[in-house]
Amino acid sequence: MKNFFLLFLGICLSFPLISWAGRPYRVEQIPNVQLADRYRFTSNPDGVLSSGAVAEIDSICYALRHKALAQVAVVAVEQIEGDDLFTFAHTLFSQWGVGRQDSDNGLGILLVVGCHEVRFVTGYGLEGVLPDALCSRIINRYMLPYFREGNYSAGMVAGVQAVASVLNGSELDLGGNDDYRGEDMPGWMIWMIILLCIGLPLGVAMWRSYRESRCPHCHKRHGLVQESCHLEARTDTSNIFLRTYRCRYCGAVVTRRTRRYRDDNHGRRGGGGMWIGGFGGGRGFGGGSFGGGFGGGSFGGGGAGGRW
């Protein structure tokens, strides 16, 4: 009888714990670990990721921030309120201010196991280096194969490593599909491909010109006018430029990074290149050895998502 009573008591006490552990998170309930420790970038309240994976991700993210390439925040939870990961991620990482205030070089990665979905959101300053299509290919090639097997730690580490490779200027293996041979292709399809080859780059160029000239503050078209362009960093394969724009309408100053790949192999190869500027204003690292915070960056509509 005593054993039965203890068993019954244990079951009753476990119900609140089970209910609490499985609760869906609201944006304001996700812990911002960066505020308590400037060396931490991974919020993992449900233990979705292993401690080893969290340590490795934090190390990669710290290196990216130390080089002023990007500020990256990673969140992994079991469930969120609602099923719109883009809105949730955009709101969350905007409230945290991921990215430098003067360059909006933030990247937020949200993994929600219960939705079987992962989402990238990019700041304005990273959209040229990490366009939506590249984010999507990183998710599909490096992360989803692991997620389908339930190995969330390996998938998240692989995805963050791939992002770091791109930001550091390294070549990234994105694979290819050789299954289609295109034999006996109809004439109309050939002409369609030719038109796409001509029209698509032109359309992309016009779209990028519109997007790059649109002020992120007053949102007016053709508002940004470039004032300066400086070589910020040089990698083995590319040059990274820091461009400063001023809005002709509201006067806001916007800085963005662009990457230009070099065609030659005889460029200078110093010890990591020359870095210009610090970590930006706003809520930067802070002066102490523990607490930190992100830099006050903002986000547009860039990024990508993937489901499994």
TrEMBL record:
Regions crossing the membrane: 188-207
Alphabetical keyword list: Membrane, Transmembrane, Transmembrane helix
Keyword Membrane applies: yes
Protein's UniProt keywords contain Cell membrane: no
Pfam annotation, one family: TPM_phosphatase
Ranges for domain TPM: 45-165
UniProt name for this protein: TPM domain-containing protein
